[in-house]
Design goal:
Length: 152
C-alpha cells in the first residue's frame, strides 16, 4: 500500500474540518496499524471502487463525535449520538471522502465512493481486524479523528 494514497483524504479532512468545525487540525504520525474494535467509538465507513478498491474508515471516540456534531449544529449540545447526530457525522465523512475522490480524479485516479455508513462499537456483532494505513488528526480542544485507509 502506497502512503501517498492517504494524502488526498488527509488534505480533504483538514479542509472540511477547518470549514465545518472551525478548527485547524494538526497531523499525528502516519503508520500501518491493525484496525481494532474500541469501546465507545464511532466509525464512518466508506467503500471505494474503481482504480482503487478498498475502504476508508474514520474512527472517532463518541464524545469527540458529539463535540464535532454540536459545533456542526451551531452549538446545539448533543448528549447522545442520536439519529440526527449520526446523520451529521455521516455527512462529515461523506464531505471528506467526496473531496478526496475529486482530488484523486484530478491526479488521474478515478474512484467512486459508497454512501457513508455509521457504526457504533456497541452495534458491531462481528469484527475482523485489518491492516490499514492510519493517520490521526488532532483537533485542539475537541479530540482526535483517525483516518484509516485499506486499499486492496
Amino acid at each position: 500500500m502506497k502512503a501517498e494514497i492517504i494524502n488526498p483524504f488527509l488534505e480533504s479532512a483538514r479542509r472540511v474540518i477547518e470549514q465545518v468545525i472551525q478548527v485547524s487540525p494538526s497531523t499525528g504520525d502516519l503508520g500501518v496499524k491493525t484496525v481494532e474494535l474500541i469501546q465507545n467509538h464511532i466509525w464512518i465507513h466508506i467503500g471505494m471502487t474503481g482504480q482503487l478498491n478498498g475502504d476508508i474508515v474514520f474512527g472517532i471516540h463518541e464524545h469527540v463525535a458529539l463535540r464535532m456534531v454540536s459545533i456542526m449544529m451551531g452549538g446545539y449540545v448533543l448528549t447522545e449520538m442520536d439519529e440526527m447526530g449520526q446523520s451529521a457525522i455521516s455527512e462529515l465523512g461523506n464531505m471528506i471522502s467526496g473531496n478526496a475522490s475529486t482530488m484523486l480524479s484530478n491526479q488521474g485516479v478515478n474512484v467512486d465512493i459508497t454512501p457513508p455508513k455509521v457504526v457504533k462499537s456497541d452495534q458491531v456483532t462481528s469484527f475482523f481486524p485489518q491492516k490499514a494505513l492510519s493517520i490521526p488528526l488532532l483537533m485542539d480542544g475537541i479530540g482526535e479523528l483517525d483516518i484509516q485507509v485499506m486499499i486492496s
